[in-house]
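Subject: Sanity check before I submit

Could someone independently write out the structure tokens for this chain? I want to compare against mine line by line before I put it in a report. The sequence has 380 residues.
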Amino acid sequence: PVPCVVDAGTGRLRPLLDPEEHHRGDATPATVLDGDAALVGVERRGAVELLRVPLDGGPATTLVDGPFAVTGIGTGGGVVVATVAHDRSAGELVALTPGSRRLLTSAGRRLGATGRLHRPEERTATAPDGYPVHGWVTVPEGAGPHPVLLDIHGGPFTQYGRKLFDETQVHVTAGYAVVQCNPRGSSGCGQAHGRAIRGAWGGLDADDVLAFLDAALEDPRLDAGRVGVMGGSYGGYLTTLLLGRTTRFTAAVSERAFLDPVSFVGSADIGWFFPDQYLGTDPERVRAQSAMAAASRITTPTLVLHSEQDWRCPVEQGMRLYVELARRGVPTELLLFPGEGHELSRSGRPRHRLARFEHLLRWWARWLPTPANPAPPVAG
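---
Independent answer below. Compare away.
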């Protein structure tokens, strides 16, 4: 959605920005009025830019762009104050006046000075049909080769962004190279990019993710023979779907996943519009896009992680995957968090968020050990 005004002549809504190019997602700040203009955050290739858009339909002015993510906006007294995140800070306050930009805080400086932050490297790969796939690779210190974690985001209409991400930092600190991209279906690259997978989940999106991974693995610092895959929500869907198609991954984590669109309808709090709009309503086409349809072919060791009060992707989705794997003897574990919902990893109880990280690292240590995250001792 983009900000609109009501046309006085027709009474119709008139968009202030091109809806095919600009997108305000869940991670963008609320729109703020500033005199005769609106201050709007829009997603673009992982960034969240800040635009000043005249209400009369005049051209927009960019206040913040580049490798940053604007997460909050305020205005008063002729000054715009924005909270701006980047890959070394969760957010700084910046004062914006015509022709000047002044940094008001340095919250990230102390953490950056520790030398413990790992900076992502921006990459672009080419999908099998020639389409460019944009993303990042974050590599631990040292020559390697380091085991790799392919991390797939949820949504699907959202984006990995240009800001400090705790999950990436934890895994890279533990010795893993983390690969992340925004395949077709993601936001931040225009509406056509987002609509490309409607009615065809597991097609172009899967192609894009694997193409980006293969390009990343050409880096000699990454160990192409030791690769794990993980994702949550839609990312859990695509993770599970890939496991049913290939044995290339050493291990996997499927978290709070959308796995079976049939049982999802009528049980998820998002409503039936989500699978209907994304996967369609033709039973055969829906089945062809279901991750559970090919779960019987999965042989990759898989940790299934879910929350008992997840109403977005109900817990039965994860439990059915776990049972499918356990009944066939595939190495698997089911980790359920009581009293938590779909947002566990982002806003769950601190002790549960910590426990989640501990179990993730334990799982990776079992199947992809590193010097910083060694394999558990063998019982004697």
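---
OP: Matches mine. For the report I'm noting this point. Residues 94 and 189 are 26 Å apart (CA to CA).
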